[in-house]
Description:
The chain has six helices and six strands. The chain is of the alpha+beta class.
Amino acid sequence: MIVNRAPVLTLWASVVAERLGYDRDASLSLGKALAGLNAQTKGRSLGIYKPAEKAEAARKVPREEEFRVVLLGRPVPAKNTGDGLRALNKDRTVEPAGVERYLEGKFGDGLYAVREAMESLAGSFEPDELADKAYRLYERFRPDIPDGVRGWGGKGEIDLDLIRSLEPKP
Length: 170
């Protein structure tokens, strides 16, 4: 299956979040927000995006309602809503239904198989160990793309056998 890294990271982060105890909707929200934060950081390092503004004058969410959820070693802004925990993208909550549609669009019929392989990998670790190793695992199975600006948004193969091979052997 050929796909770019953003949906792979989104799905993996959501699978990890679920293994760490978050419900499915919160996990989808956190996964998408984390992938967006990583894309922003990478885009800035490549000169594709301008550096983040120092002032956050346009914020609509008071800071005291926000907190951070550490996922794959990165703090993700979040808040509790009437529908449960949701990640934030600027001042808006990341809605799980939109994330599910995004993943379905990117993975198509392969979504179930990719999710299943990732869930098996995540389930092969105790939650604390997974929290510590999750990003390094992603780096091992993410699609290979060219370095630098030429690889930005590039697609590569996701290898389900490789994902499965990363499970610790008994």
